[in-house]
């Protein structure tokens, strides 16, 4: 049973790219295949977006207590020579926390100069990090269920497939370490910020137009040029991401989820969700929770 590292890296790249970063970095551990896979998939996403990619990797087996400070210095040298602003994806939360610590020692502003994203969403670590750390959220609930299911099958003498089971992540928990928009167009940045703050309140494009005080045609053209989507598509994307999270992590009914995510009717939520994900909300919930 393994994490779907392609999906993890894809979420990480999307999260940082949609914040406007043109320079992206990866900080990982060369000893672990999953770290190397995340690096490779992340690099592919960055290069596909025609952005700059930078990488630093540690061989953790070679590091002991006496050499740990030397490793911090090497990471510091790497960070000092990176272009800014830059978004850094670390292969897991502990590595991301180390990047944050080095940034603080170098008096580099996070997220204004360097945004940092981890993996695992360790609630305690992420909340106590300075600043609080954004992280890709694994589907721990499904991982536990699948592990128990496979163990039960083995104990009952059933034949278990040797093919690995890939568990997809749930999304990204955004905290202060990536709460930034590295976008030069101040109107687009203001529109995107407004969407993120109010997407679940039932807003529409006209509300955004009134907020930024430019014509709808100009807004939509500039927004698409910078973000790659229309304002309406971005509103819907934010809502669908929230719907996925509530389907996976709660037992709320569709009506309750619709109310909390800005959909006026459950029927429209279902149609929009299926159009975007190719499955109904019920099918998605069953897939990620095994219920």
From TrEMBL:
Keyword Protein biosynthesis among UniProt keywords: no
The HTH araC/xylS-type domain covers 189-287
Keywords on record: DNA-binding, Transcription, Transcription regulation
Alphabetical list of Gene3D superfamilies matching this protein = 3.40.50.2300, Homeodomain-like
Q: Which InterPro entries does the record match to this protein?
A: Homeodomain-like_sf, HTH_AraC, HTH_AraC-typ_CS, LacI/GalR-like_sensor, Peripla_BP_I
Keyword Transcription regulation tagged: yes
Give one GO term, molecular function aspect.
DNA-binding transcription factor activity
Q: Which domain of life is it from?
A: Bacteria
| TM ranges | none
Q: Which PANTHER family match?
A: LACI-RELATED TRANSCRIPTIONAL REPRESSOR, XYLOSE OPERON REGULATORY PROTEIN
Q: What is this protein called?
A: Xylose operon regulatory protein
Q: Which organism is it from?
A: Rhodopirellula maiorica SM1
Starting at the broadest rank, the lineage of the source organism is: Bacteria, Pseudomonadati, Planctomycetota, Planctomycetia, Pirellulales
């Amino acid at each position: 049973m393994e994490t779907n590292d392609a999906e993890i890296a894809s979420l990480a790249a999307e999260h940082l790219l949609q914040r406007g970063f043109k320079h992206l970095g990866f900080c990982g551990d060369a000893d672990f295949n999953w770290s190397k896979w995340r690096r490779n998939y992340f690099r592919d996403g960055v290069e596909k977006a025609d952005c700059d990619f930078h990488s630093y990797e540690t061989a953790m087996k070679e590091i002991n207590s006496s050499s740990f400070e030397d490793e911090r210095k090497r990471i510091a040298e790497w960070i000092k020579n990176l272009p800014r602003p830059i978004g850094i994806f670390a292969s897991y939360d502990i590595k991301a926390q180390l990047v944050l610590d080095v940034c603080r020692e170098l008096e580099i502003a996070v997220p204004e100069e360097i945004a940092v994203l981890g993996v695992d969403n360790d609630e305690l670590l992420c909340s106590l990090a300075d600043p609080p750390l954004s992280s890709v959220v694994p589907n721990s609930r499904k991982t536990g269920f699948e592990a128990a299911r496979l163990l039960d099958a083995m104990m009952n003498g059933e034949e278990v497939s040797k093919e690995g089971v890939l568990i997809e992540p749930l999304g990204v928990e955004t905290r202060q370490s990536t709460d930034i928009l590295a976008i030069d167009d101040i109107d687009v940045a203001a529109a995107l910020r407004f969407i993120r703050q109010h997407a679940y309140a039932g807003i529409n494009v006209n509300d955004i137009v009134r907020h930024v005080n430019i014509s709808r045609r100009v807004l939509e053209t500039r927004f698409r040029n910078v973000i790659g989507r229309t304002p309406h598509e971005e509103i819907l994307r934010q809502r669908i991401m929230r719907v996925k999270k509530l389907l996976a992590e709660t037992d709320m009914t569709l009506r309750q989820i619709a109310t909390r995510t800005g959909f006026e009717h459950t029927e429209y939520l279902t149609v929009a969700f299926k159009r975007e994900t190719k499955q109904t909300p019920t099918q998605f919930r069953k897939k990620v929770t095994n219920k």
